[in-house]
Amino acid sequence: MKLHWSTRSPYVRKVMAAAIETGLDAAIQTRLSTVSLSTVNTDVERDNPLGKIPTLVTDDGMALYDSLVICEYLDHHSRKSRLFPRDFEQRLAALRWHALGNGLTDILILWNNERGRDPAHRSAPHLAAFRAKAEATLDALEASMDELERREFDIGHLGVAVGIGHADFRFADLQWRATRPRLSQWADRMAERESLRRTVQFDPRNIPMPARTGKLYLVSLGVGDPDHLTLRADRVMREADLVLGQADAPARYPAQLAGKPFMEAGHGLFTPMARRRAPMDEVEEQEAARSRAIRDCVAAGGTVAILTQGDPTLYGPQIGYLDAFRDLAPEVVPGVSSFAAANAALACAVTGGRGSQSVILSLGKNANEGYGGRDRLSMLAKSRSALVLFTMKTDLARVADELRAGYPGDTPVAIVCHAGRSGGQAVRRATLDTLVDAAGREPLPFEHLIYVGDFLGEA
User: Fold this and answer.
1) CATH code that applies to domain 2-197
2) Average pLDDT of the segment spanning 183-190
3) pTM for the complete prediction?
4) Distance between CA 294 and CA 262 in Å, rounded?
5) Cβ(417)–Cβ(426) under 8 Å?
6) Does domain 347-456 have CATH number 3.30.950.10?
7) What does DSSP say about strands 303-308 and 331-333: parallel, antiparallel, or unpaired?
């Protein structure tokens, strides 16, 4: 699923919190989308004619609008949570509480928009009315704490918590907590709930920074299990003021990333790869948003950590950040690569071949039709060195045919799946002649490497 997303939208926060509550957050790919009342975001408009976020595009291509609709969709497809009670009376009560919290959010956004106008055009009656309505809603919540606290957590609690969170985000000067102690305590307890702790709103332009020289890191998380994280990577992540990574990073590394401003890093941004996967204007919009956030953070003296799997310099999807921000002197924090983890899984000397002690790293797709590089697999095979293939978009039958230009058909082959993942790591052994059959016995996961060479011994 694809979600048009922003770090500042309370409605997006509600949807992401609901995704975490329902256990579906890992199934959502976030797409950073900036919208405003005065401009049109054509990327969002393609999925939602209203041009508003959040907008969720389901796996079957249906676009859903409005945060409450999206939350109910997630709840319906979850086996973990019941944010929307089935009993009508309970459901009505939950929706009533949600309406109060969501209404508070609506008022706060209108109020913030009005006070953000040029002073000569602000409407004093509107500002006074927005304040009065917000204060009245907060008073009503304070008076209703007994009822709200008795209820099991549902969409009502989420709507109220997000509304109060937006008051803290945009209206620190409101000082609403001073006269509403029970609501303040309840809000603090809600903020500790995982779904709300991981979705705190932030404005990348206004991240408070200590007085120090800013720094940009490209941090390897290693591969497989989270405990492959190096001590240095752990330190950089804990010290970072802004983190970019895969959507599931905060859940996988809660000790390092809890409460930190977080943006989804995308896949292949700042490289031609991204432009092959999405329209140019869409990619440029994503890159521009990340560029602003990174440069603003570093300029203010902050530390930015861009997280990536394995070795970012070996076919890594985030390598484009190094070139795009070369002027910021980015530093790579090395980690356990898939190559290193797969070597460990094989438990043999990769450089121990009988006729060659060299190792060649290449791509399986270099055997694909139309590839004209000097490193076609048929050329590499002639050295009979140990060959390790990263397997994105690989046609195994063509790989085997190309490799037979140099390797005998009985050359040992190993397919290492899920290297470094306890409980999932596996090695399938074959020969060049039986590779396709061995791979076809059951589907190969995305995470696999292919090793070819006599260093493997007998297949």
Assistant:
1) 1.20.1050.10
2) 96
3) 0.56
4) 11
5) yes
6) yes
7) unpaired
